[in-house]
Write a structure and sequence with these properties.
- The structure is a single chain.
- Strands 2-3-1-4-5 form a 5-stranded parallel beta sheet, with helices on both faces.
- The chain is α/β, with parallel strands linked by helices.
- The protein has a single domain (21-188), classed as Rossmann fold (3-Layer(aba) Sandwich), CATH 3.40.50.
- The protein starts with 20 loop residues before the first strand and ends in a 7-residue tail after the last helix.
- Helix 3 runs parallel beside helix 4.
- It has helices at residues 32-43, 50-58, 62-88, 104-112, 124-134, 146-164, 176-189; strands at 21-25, 47-49, 92-95, 115-121, 167-170.
- It has 7 helices and 5 strands.
Length: 196
């Protein structure tokens, strides 16, 4: 497992040229979109947010899609979008949906992609507090009490996030700009280029 802010030396890391995808993984509310937007701007790449892609394909927000068909309607669409992006997209910064790592096809596509994967690791209590403070009601899985859901998700997914990560960043008490700078430094350290 990679240590916080340090790439995992057991991983081969990105190729000497810039990877096609910088992929941010982590639980809901960990800052994937916010940090991804900063990294994308510095790399001169688009940020691909799967929630936006869902809306563009269906005309529905994630909440609307979830209300109409639940998880059974959302997850296959999420999988198809992520797999498509990883196999034919790029270069980009991809804010991966938290639950996408539960899908074997997504994991296989990520393993086969030219990607540098960053786990934005966060304590579930910190995330629940952050989500409640923000008044964020666009996360259909969390319900009225996000903490138990986030704790369960962390227990189920942390091992997968760890196995995917080229870089692990603990997000508590860190500004998004600091996290983005750490991603960019890791890309430079691995000779990924394209970082100004």
């Amino acid at each position: 497992m990679a240590s916080p802010d340090r790439p995992d030396p057991r991983r081969t890391g990105p190729a000497p040229s810039s990877p096609d995808h910088v992929v941010l993984v982590g639980l809901m509310g960990s800052g994937k979109t916010t940090v991804g937007r900063l990294v994308a701007a510095h790399l001169g790449r688009p940020l691909v947010d799967v929630d936006v892609e869902v809306h563009e394909r269906t005309g529905l927000t994630v909440n609307e899609l979830w209300e109409r068909g639940g998880e059974a309607a959302y997850r296959p669409l999420e999988r198809d979008i992520v797999v498509h992006l990883l196999t034919v997209g790029g270069p980009d910064v991809l804010a991966m949906p938290g639950g996408a790592v539960d899908d074997e096809l997504v994991l296989a596509s990520l393993a086969g992609a030219d990607a540098f994967t960053v786990w934005l690791r966060a304590d579930p209590l910190e995330l629940a507090t952050r989500i409640e403070r923000s008044g964020s009601h666009h996360r259909p899985l969390l319900g009225d009490d996000p903490l138990p859901v986030l704790e369960e998700q962390a227990a189920e997914r942390d091992r997968t996030y760890s196995s995917l990560a080229d870089l692990v960043l603990d997000v508590e008490s860190r500004a998004p700009e600091d996290l983005a700078a750490a991603v960019e430094a890791a890309l430079r350290e691995h000779g990924a280029g394209g970082v100004s």
